[in-house]
Design brief:
Layout (H helix, E strand, L loop, with lengths): L2 E5 L6 E14 L3 E10 L2 E11 L5 H17 L6 E5 L8 E7 L4 E2 H6 L8 H10 L4 H22 L1 E2 L8 E3 L5 E3 L6 E5 L6 E4 L11 H4 L5 E2 L2 H16 L8 H10 L10 H10 L11 H9 L11 H5 L2
Antiparallel strand pairs: 1-2, 2-3, 3-4, 4-6, 5-6, 7-9, 8-11, 9-10, 11-12, 12-13
Helix pairs in contact: 4-6, 4-9, 6-8
């Protein structure tokens, strides 16, 4: 596969290079992330290179998206090494690069699928073993709390992540949780008539986490409760190991419209209630923010008796 080399616009002595073979994720060619190299003078080091391609979106969306990404990079609790546009004559600011430090990182998808186990360090291996133990619900809830904290932080900055999914969640070398994918992040804007923020969306969403208002496009403006829905789906996936809706794209979208999340697969009664509220079809019935979602999880009693259905009791 071909390699790409770009020179930093902030420091002309620094060059970054990456191969397409080292792709971490690809979000509809709008946002891609690669393991690459930073070369400065005679030294080099591994880095994560996030590449944003704005060539296929409208000018107004490009400006909004660029603004939100730059805003996030400046305000992030984990600052980026480098942020710059490729503003050569052929590109005209169509590409944007965010450079992050590289650690021994795996994704939450690796935890769910059991892939790349050879790349896990001791801390990640320990977390993986606990994640696949009878304490899974507690571990999954702890992971989700960290994700919710990250998303709430973004919401407070005025950024709506919208597309929270396992391949976009990093489990870093010390088992810290970090969101990676901001390919469809949108800027939350202040409504002049109401004291709340809302978000303009596009179609580049993961259908498995898309709530009803996105599927049918009935809401021109999407609030942070859209994030709540996506994280509720992720919570279901962490607890059960499966997505609630499967099949071809059409089937999944129909399920998102007409079917409730199959919460009977969740054995813990409180977690079942939380996921039901987070994934409500009616946006008004969901948690109104990630902070209220966090409060509900923090109140879970993991010693609470698990409720099994009659067929589960037979096989116990």
């Amino acid at each position: 596969m071909p390699s790409v080399t770009v020179r930093s616009k902030n420091n002309p002595h620094i060059v970054y290079t990456y191969d397409f073979d080292n792709l971490i994720f690809d979000r509809s060619r709008i946002a891609m992330a690669f393991v690459g190299r930073q070369m400065k003078n005679e030294s080099s080091s591994d880095v994560i290179i996030q590449v944003y391609n704005f060539s296929n979106i409208s000018e107004i969306w490009k400006r909004k998206l660029q603004y939100s990404i730059v805003n996030f990079a400046k305000e992030s609790r984990r600052p980026f090494i480098d942020v710059f546009f490729d503003d050569t004559s052929n590109c005209s600011r169509e590409y944007m690069y965010l450079i992050r430090e590289f650690h021994q990182e795996i994704t939450l998808e690796d935890f769910l699928s059991g892939k790349n186990l050879n790349n896990f360090n001791d801390a990640q291996n320990h977390l993986y073993q606990i994640f696949n133990s009878p304490d899974r619900a507690k571990v999954a809830s702890d992971i989700l709390l960290r994700i919710l904290s990250e998303v709430q932080y973004l919401n407070d900055l005025g950024i709506c992540s919208i597309d929270v999914h396992p391949s976009a969640v990093l489990v870093k070398s010390e088992c810290e949780i970090e969101l990676l994918d901001f390919g469809i992040t949108k800027l939350l804007e202040r409504n002049n008539n109401e004291n709340n923020r809302f978000c303009i969306i596009d179609r580049n969403l993961t259908e498995y986490e898309a709530p009803e208002e996105i599927v049918i496009g009935s809401y021109k403006y999407i609030t942070q409760q859209t994030d709540v829905y996506a994280i509720g789906i992720l919570y279901f996936q962490l607890i059960t190991g499966n997505l609630p809706f499967k099949g071809a794209l059409y089937d999944v979208l129909q399920s998102q419209l007409h079917e409730s999340v199959p919460i009977k697969q969740i054995t813990h009664p409180t977690i079942r209630t939380i996921i039901k509220k987070a994934t409500a079809k009616d946006i008004k019935k969901r948690f109104d923010s990630c902070s209220h979602f966090i409060a509900a999880i923090e109140d879970i009693d993991f010693s609470e008796k698990i409720q099994y259905s009659w067929w589960q009791k037979i096989f116990k």
